């Protein structure tokens, strides 16, 4: 079904919980919260998806996305353990985990558009205007969302300093 191998299904289903967890945390907290139940589910499912991409990917860029995602997750979840709970660690955490969510959504949107509906996908060419527009929209969401998160963190810091 949908031209996905059994290993591809394991990759897809293993990484799928990260999507609603990311949406939940962004809606509830304005960021990905590593030290929460949702954050733990996000980490595990992202690691499953990012590590299995090396076994299922057909595009060389997919391996790069997988490796960068793993590095961002390790940095985002580990920075406070290395730098402590200071402000610089919060900035690094927010940037790393927000970009990891972006790197989750780019191939997700691409795969959905290239596989659905089964047999007659919406996109058949990687240079399709629909696909490029969707990926551009994700990039805009990343820039706007990340800017909002960083401004919020900066305002919170200024308010605490007063």
Fill in the keyword field for this structure.
6 helices, globular, single chain, 162 residues, mainly alpha
Query: How many distinct helices?
Result: 6
Main beta sheet: strand number and arrangement?
none
What proportion of the residues is helical, as a percent range? over 70%
The whole-angstrom Rg is 17 Å
The proportion of strand residues reads under 5%
Structural class given helices, strands, pairing? mainly alpha
Overall average pLDDT: 95
Cα end-to-end separation: 59 Å
Coarse morphology: globular
The count of DSSP E runs of length 2 or more, i.e. the number of strands, is 0
Model regions low in confidence, pLDDT < 50 over at least 5 residues: none
Strand and helix order? HHHHHH
Could you explain the architecture of this structure?
This protein has helices at residues 6-15, 18-29, 37-56, 60-83, 87-115, 129-161. Helix 2 (18-29) runs antiparallel to helix 3 (37-56). It contains six helices and no strands. The mean pLDDT is 95. The radius of gyration is 17 Å and the shape is globular. It is mainly alpha-helical.
């Amino acid at each position: 079904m949908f031209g996905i191998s059994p290993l591809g299904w394991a990759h897809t289903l293993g990484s799928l919980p990260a999507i609603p967890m990311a949406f939940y945390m962004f809606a509830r907290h304005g960021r990905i919260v590593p030290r929460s139940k949702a954050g733990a589910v996000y980490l595990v499912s992202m690691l499953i998806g990012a590590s299995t991409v090396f076994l299922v990917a057909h595009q060389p860029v997919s391996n790069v996305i997988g490796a960068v995602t793993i590095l961002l997750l390790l940095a985002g979840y580990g920075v406070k353990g290395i730098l402590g709970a200071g402000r610089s660690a919060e900035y690094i955490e927010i940037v790393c985990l927000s970009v990891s969510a972006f790197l989750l959504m780019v191939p997700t949107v691409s795969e959905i558009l290239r596989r659905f509906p089964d047999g007659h996908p919406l996109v058949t060419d990687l240079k399709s205007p629909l696909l490029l527009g969707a990926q551009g929209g994700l990039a805009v969401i990343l820039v706007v969302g990340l800017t909002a998160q960083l401004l919020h963190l900066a305002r919170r810091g200024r308010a605490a300093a007063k």
